[in-house]
């Protein structure tokens, strides 16, 4: 139950971070937004170090660095995928892949689910797709290259989560610090190489920094959830993050929640209840 609540918190934090990051990216080039969000996220993790502890054994450094590279790749592939579009088709593909790979890894490593979990897990995967899909998802067909990039983005997100899970359980926030430092370095290097293409627009500093803080909180909650529960369950609950984005868009931007998304939110509620019974 603790792992489930932590995973739900991680999902909500990821959804809020994506919402704010998306708003911030409307004002300036996405790399300008990430250049603020990534250091803000790293700052939070460094502040947590004295309270939660951190060790930097070779395994921690290796898995943390791997998660950082995967995180940087996820940013690049995800935003490129959504730029190609259509978003309403590619977004649920990315979310589903990001859930399926950690689930497969968890089951391969010997995790077992009870009868309620065997029903709740596929329901949660279906909810991931439903809450991610917007209006008119069937109105456009993505190209083969766009679909391949969507799978790549989902795979990169999934690898980030799996690598964090593989880090030693006694490493505290060490893997998060290493991962965020590596991803920040990659992002800053990319921004330096593309400096002339970034434009002159100033980013939304407060919004971007808040997105980074929330992303750091989401990573921490996922790590704690994965250490206290099954990766298969934690990953699929975390992948419900589009639900938070959808609800925020409805309350802040007055965007309409479509029938499929409402069904997805209801399905997610049932799925979480069943997984709690396991």
Helix content: over 70%
Question: If you compute it from the alpha carbons, what radius of gyration comes out, rounded to the nearest whole angstrom?
Answer: 18 Å
Overall 3D geometry?
A: globular
**Oligomerization category of the chains in this entry:** single chain
| Share in β-strands | under 5%
One letter per element, helices H and strands E, the order comes to HHHHHHHHHHH
Which stretches are low in confidence, meaning pLDDT under 50 for 5 or more residues running? none
Characterize the structure shown:
This protein is mostly helical. 79% of the residues lie in helices and 0% in strands. The longest helix has 27 residues, at 58-84. The chain is globular and about 55 Å long. The model has no long low-confidence stretch (mean pLDDT 80).
Notable traits:
single chain, 278 residues, mainly alpha, 11 helices, 79% helix
Summarize the structure.
With 278 residues, the chain is mainly alpha-helical.
Produce the secondary structure layout.
Blueprint: H1 2-27, H2 30-52, H3 58-84, H4 87-108, H5 115-132, H6 144-166, H7 174-193, H8 205-228, H9 231-238, H10 242-252, H11 259-277
């Amino acid at each position: 139950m603790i792992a489930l609540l932590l995973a739900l918190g991680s999902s909500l934090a990821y959804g809020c971070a994506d919402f704010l990051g998306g708003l911030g990216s409307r004002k300036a080039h996405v790399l300008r937004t990430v250049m603020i969000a990534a250091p803000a996220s790293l700052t939070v993790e460094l502040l947590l170090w004295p309270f939660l502890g951190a060790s930097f054994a070779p395994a921690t450094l290796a898995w943390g660095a791997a998660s950082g590279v995967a995180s940087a790749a996820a940013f690049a592939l995800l935003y490129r995928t959504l730029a190609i579009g259509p978003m309403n088709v590619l977004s649920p593909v990315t979310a589903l892949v990001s859930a399926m790979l950690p689930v497969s890894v968890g089951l391969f490593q010997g995790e077992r689910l009870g009868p309620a979990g065997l029903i709740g897990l596929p329901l949660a995967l279906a909810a991931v797709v439903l809450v991610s899909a917007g209006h008119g998802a069937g109105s456009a067909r993505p190209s083969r290259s766009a679909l391949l990039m969507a799978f790549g983005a989902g795979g990169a997100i999934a690898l980030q989560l799996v690598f964090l899970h593989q880090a030693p359980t006694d490493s505290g926030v060490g893997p998060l610090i290493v991962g965020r430092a590596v991803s920040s370095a990659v992002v800053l290097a990319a921004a330096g190489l593309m400096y002339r293409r970034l434009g002159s627009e100033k980013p939304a500093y407060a919004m971007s920094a808040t997105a980074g803080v929330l992303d750091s909180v989401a990573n921490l909650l996922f790590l704690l959830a994965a250490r206290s529960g099954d990766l298969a369950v934690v990953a699929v609950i975390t992948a419900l993050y589009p639900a938070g984005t959808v609800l925020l868009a409805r309350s802040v931007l007055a965007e309409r929640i479509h029938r499929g998304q409402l069904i997805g939110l209801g399905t997610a509620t049932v799925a979480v209840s069943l997984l709690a019974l396991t």
